[in-house]
Write a structure and sequence with these properties.
The protein starts with 16 loop residues before the first strand and ends in a 37-residue tail after the last strand. The strands form three sheets. Strands 4-3-8-9 form a four-stranded antiparallel beta sheet, with no helix packed on it. Strands 5-6-7 form a three-stranded antiparallel beta sheet, covered by helices on one side. Strands 1-2 form a two-stranded antiparallel sheet. With 171 residues, it is an alpha+beta fold. It is globular and about 55 Å long. Helix content is 17%, strand content 27%. It has one domain (27-166): SH3 type barrels (Roll), CATH 2.30.30. It contains two helices and nine strands.
Length: 171
């Protein structure tokens, strides 16, 4: 019997083995989360390629203790677990890669480059569009407070503001 030949009683799609482990069910929650995370990536692509139109602006909350987050030790000490950034008028060099985005922001007139993995994002909102998404924290091992500091290049730009978005979250 060759590849593609099945007995009439066999379902050719019944094999649910992937990378040596049996798949027992389809996790639709994870599929939806992945699809919605792609919406965030596409919105960031628009902002990177064309700028933010009109009054659109983004609130992005992320886990700073994600192992692939890169930010200055000063910011990491100030925000050891979570941080929210606002992308509106005062950001520069927004660049997207397959697993993360980088952006230059200023905090207290000090320029910083942040590398934010998509997996670290817990909240995304565009208040002008009245659009918001919350994400479950991804499965990763947070890095302890003693984690190695990864110095990032300094960026030029105006001041940006870190804000609390607790008022926007559903309770």
């Amino acid at each position: 019997m060759g590849f593609g030949d099945f007995l009439s009683t066999e379902n050719p799609h019944s094999t649910n083995i992937k990378r040596g482990c049996m798949i027992n069910e389809i996790n639709y929650d994870k599929l939806m989360e992945k699809a919605l995370k792609h919406v965030v990536i596409e919105a960031l692509k628009v902002a990177s390629d064309e700028g933010l139109p009109g009054e659109h602006h983004f609130y992005i909350s992320f886990k700073t203790n994600h192992p692939d987050v890169r930010m200055s030790s000063d910011l990491l000490n100030q925000y050891p677990e979570d941080m929210t950034i606002v992308l509106q008028h005062q950001f520069a060099n927004l660049m997207l890669s397959e697993n993360y985005f980088e952006v230059d922001l200023s905090f207290s007139n000090i320029p910083h480059t942040l590398r934010i993995p998509y997996d670290s994002i817990t909240y995304f909102a565009d208040p002008h569009a009245r659009f918001a998404l919350s994400f479950a924290p991804s499965e990763y091992a947070p890095i302890s407070d003693e984690r190695e500091s990864h110095p990032m290049k300094r960026a030029s730009g105006e001041t940006a503001e870190v804000v609390s978005i607790d008022a926007f979250r559903k309770k």
